[in-house]
Amino acid sequence: MKENWKNLVKLLVILAGMVFLFWLWLHRMESVKEEPEGEKIRVEDVKILIEALELPVTLEEENSDGENKAQDGGEVQEDGTPETAGQRELTYEQYRSIYEQIGGAEKGMPDFAEKYEDTHAFLKEDWYQAFQLMLAYFDLDSSIWKTTVFIIKVDTEEKKLYTQNSEYTYCSSSFADSVFYKEEVYVKGDELLTSIRTLDEKTILENVWVMEVTNEQKEEQTAYTLSCFYRQMDFMVPAETQTEREQVTDLTFEDGKLTDTQVKSEKIRGKLLRVTPESVEIEGYGIYETEENLEIYKLCGTLEAQKKTDLMIGYDYTDFVVWNQKICACLVSREGEMDQIRVLLKNTAEGGYYYEKALVTVDGEQTVVEADKMETGERLIFQSQALTDKVKLEIEDIQKADNTYRGALEFYKTEDGMVIINELPLEEYLYAVVPSEMPASYPMEALKAQAVCARTYAFKYILHAGFAGLGAHLDDTTSYQVYHNLEENAATTTAVKETTGMKLYYQGELAENYYYSTSCGYGTDTGIWKSENEPISYIRPGKLASEETRQNAQSAEDMSAEENFAAYIRTVDENDFESGEPWYRWQYEVNEIDIDGLLGRVQERYQANAALIQTRKEGADGAYYVSEPVEDIGELQNIEISKRGPGGIADEMLITGSEAVIKVISEYNIRRILCDGESKVIRQNGSGSVPGTLLPSAFFIIETGNVEEDMVGYTLIGGGYGHGVGMSQNGAKEMGSLGYGYEEILTSFFADCEIKM
Prior knowledge:
The protein is an alpha+beta fold and 757 residues long. Helix content is 21%, strand content 33%. The protein has five domains: 43-195, no CATH class; 203-264; 267-332, no CATH class; 340-510, no CATH class; 517-724 and 745-751, no CATH class. The N and C termini lie far apart (129 Å). The relative contact order is 0.06.
């Protein structure tokens, strides 16, 4: 009996031990966390983002035994290639290391301790949750941001990818497999860093030009490939069904695949009359609205996408693709002879472009055209039956040397009023431009040079209309080229005819061919106009004299140095082409400064471009300048040129008063501010005139007149007439007199350019 009790106790102890061990096993099983499911973040992408934030974080990739903690026997990818360290998945232990190195606890970042074991691969969604908090603390200048892109093309060799609107360099290798997917991404500058997630959204590329459709037989199925062009890029799209080639097409993508195509084949064609931001007007069809996603394709020559401003007003070289009663695409199908120009006639009496009434005489018949009797959008066109006869235009209060016009006069009623456009052959337009821009008495070779310049200038605006909304290429004033101020002249017409079609080109593109009246012996470059572009390389700043004189000029003669330019402008260099011209040297004397008038002109230029009028401030590191409204100068103490550009042109000026020091930037502003509208300019031949609002040039030095500490007047000793950029017309005149041909004249002012049709 006693023995039985012993056996029973042993059995109970064994059973209790087994229960306890079972309990321990169950407890352990419950304490071991199950690895979370979901897309994992790769070490490569984590490193990219840490480096983009410039964080001093060391990311350990291996255990002490040399095995990557994110690896679970997965050292080979699905395609059989070895997996690199960057492609491995981040472990929770690695995340904790990052968390601790950046002080994640103090920054309220999640530690995810309840979710992961050390060896677990870290989920992508959890990493980006944490990274967003990192941005808040470390990306103080917001250099990294989120955006959504649809990837159209990837160049793995250059590590570039192309989206609907942009081109990027990409960092994460995952982007190589993202073609035709929409991705939410992190961006820094022009770099795509990593993909946050792939969006399961339908994406439509509208108005794609499908160049070609090819097919390939694969077993019993036919696979198609679309060769496409869209926003300056060509790309290939696999397709399950055939579509039409050489058509504008909408492409629909889902889950990285082309799922639908919509061909837009309806087209109209006619002379393009006007282009506005919202519409186009086509002769014979009227006004059509344009789609927001309007695409313009130049199909002739090199295939390229163009802007709306590239559409050629006055020509019918374009097919307009219509979809839902709107223009969705424009196909420039050929480059015809662009020999017509449309000139907007400015109402010089009213200072605008609108007219109330005009008398037109054509082929002996008179017609009174009145704005209030025309409907908005209505056009009236007057043209002689004979190609050689002109149309006479008479408008009250407007007097011109010649009021008869070649070609056609077109009256168009806009919502704002009636405009007048003269459409005529380009060469005939030049018949009236050249004598208006250069005296017909000048040597023939100079006139030819002017004709080539004027033609090149006009042609640029035929290609890119200056008044697209009104249907004109340019106007008839000094804002573009003076037209019809003087009657046609036999000499200038001959110059135009003997250079027919000739234009100035630089490296295959139309050259910028600026010109002005007279130099002081030196020219400058386009940098004086403070554009964002670099100065044009082929517009040569420097001495305007014979080649021998230029070669003999000493390098020490740097006209940007004040002392060198001052010494030069006080003298006459007889080797200069224009040394005998009245405007070669001049003097401008202001005996009594109107301080209120001076301040008013400074304020006016500030309103025109605030960045070019700056006020001096004193800081801990010295003086600096800021752009701000100028309220008061105080007592005027000094005016000086503080910086000169090439050729000695005044580029910056300081106005020092008892209350402020003002920096004036740009030659134009300097010429406006120092011109009081009352004082006379005395030319070197003794003749004089009062400039209205602008000094002859900015090639001058300043001599101040002071009473004690206050400046009361100034004298400018200067030379030249005009901005000094490009061709000096009087320089061309002198070169023509010396036997230079027009090609030599032009290439002297526009280095490395060529003259051709």
